[in-house]
Amino acid sequence: MGKRRKSSLDRGLGDRLEDMREWVSDHTKIVMPIVLLICVLVTVFVAVNANRKAAEEVEAQMVGIDMDALPGATGTEEAAGEESIPQLELEINAYPAVNTLVSEYYTAMAEGNIEAIESMNAYVEDKEKIRIREMSKYVDSYQNLDVYTKLGPVEGSYLVYVYSKVKFTEYDKLVPGMKAFYVCTDEEGKCYINGGEANSVVTNYIREISLQDDMVDLNNKAVAEYNELLESDEELNAFLADLSSRIDASVGEILAKEEAEAQEQAAAEAAAAEQEAAAAEQEMAAAEGTGETAVTVKTVRATDVVNIRSSDSETADKLGKAQIDDEFTLLEERGNGWSKISFEGKDAFIKSEFLEVVSEETVTQAVEQADATEAVAENTDTETENTNTETAGNGNNNTEAVQTVTVVENVNVRKSASENGEKLGLAYVGEKLELLMKQADGWTRVKYNGQTAYVKSDYVE
């Protein structure tokens, strides 16, 4: 529903039908009071937000429509091969599916049931939802619904004009009104209000249909009936003016309150984020000062019955079987779809898709010396094969192959496993770094320029 700037050639149904109504009023000398009431005035309840793709699809459908083949069509081809809009028959209560949609929609408006309204028309703006909800406090029901229809520009579409009489809770007489809707049919055959159509072919079609004699007569009849009621009933005039003021005030207060609450929530979230970052920084500083390192320990739970294996391979030895809801300490989540866990005091592996994180806890681990830590890190991955290479001059000397990771996206190299850690440099795409350990907290410990450093695991493989 992204908003976009409207041009003179790309206006929504609401604007075009509004122009039509003004045109009718000018030529029939009928003056309609401006009152902000739902279903009391002659209005068009069609918003403008449809995307360009939807518009192109409708235009494609229009190419194949034979206008003369539509029921009641009397149009003839004009110059330059263009087809005129046919004089379609104005039907009343002719389509049960449309009648059901209208009845349910008006019931939802009387009840202020916004959820139901959105299920039938997804293009109702937030401010309009508030107005409908506030109006429902004063509406008892919408009665005497008559649904006038003309066939729409595409298959399964209708131009719908609903005449109704509203019963207010604080006024005895029924007040007439008329609304216009563009109704379409979905793939399941269910009707819905297409309040977001902004296609020029459709809007021009609807404008021309709405200016046909029978539609002008229907519109004038509703306007005249409403005006006569206003002229003969001063109590109604006073009631509507007061009601309009009350609803405007309520809508304004609600919008102001929602804006204030949104600002307070944003401020609270920002403050909480700052406190969390400060606490993490303090914890990291304390850990570095005491020769400790902070590590996030995750507990995972099995979501299905799954084999536990000795390495990250479906052909590896099976060590056991995890049952649903069994919990394990997560040691490492690998990029190949496997997770290393602690199982009966040993390292084991389970497919990651069968695990879910149930808790996280930050703990500190003592570090006696950097060399010892690195030695432990190099031996954590039990599945890495060690290769023996012969040294020059002595075929009996074996050296362990150095493990490396490759940088897949430019990444900062930091002194500690934190985005706030001191930046040691920048590793570039394709650069290889000596791997010390892939940690469960999303960081990878590497050798960088002869010293221990950290990079985010997402940027190396």
Plain-language structure description:
By secondary structure, the chain is of the alpha+beta class. It contains 9 helices and 21 strands. The strands form 6 sheets. Strands 1, 2, 3, 4, 5 and 6 form a 6-stranded mixed sheet that branches. α5 packs across α8. The longest helix has 56 residues. It is elongated. The N terminus is likely disordered.
Number of β-strand runs: 21
Give helix and strand order, one letter per element, not per position.
Answer: HEHEHHHEEEEHHHEEEEEEEHEEEEEEEE
Described by strand count, sense and barrel closure, the largest sheet is: 6 strands, mixed
**Net shape:** elongated
What level of helicity do the residues show? 25-40%
Q: Which structural class matches the secondary elements? A: alpha+beta
Question: If you compute it from the alpha carbons, what radius of gyration comes out, rounded to the nearest whole angstrom?
Answer: 35 Å
- Give the rounded overall mean pLDDT: 76
Taking pLDDT < 50 over at least 5 consecutive residues as the criterion, the unreliable ranges are 1-11, 27-82, 367-400
The N- to C-terminal Cα distance equals: 39 Å
> How many helix segments?
9
Percentage of residues in strands: 25-35%
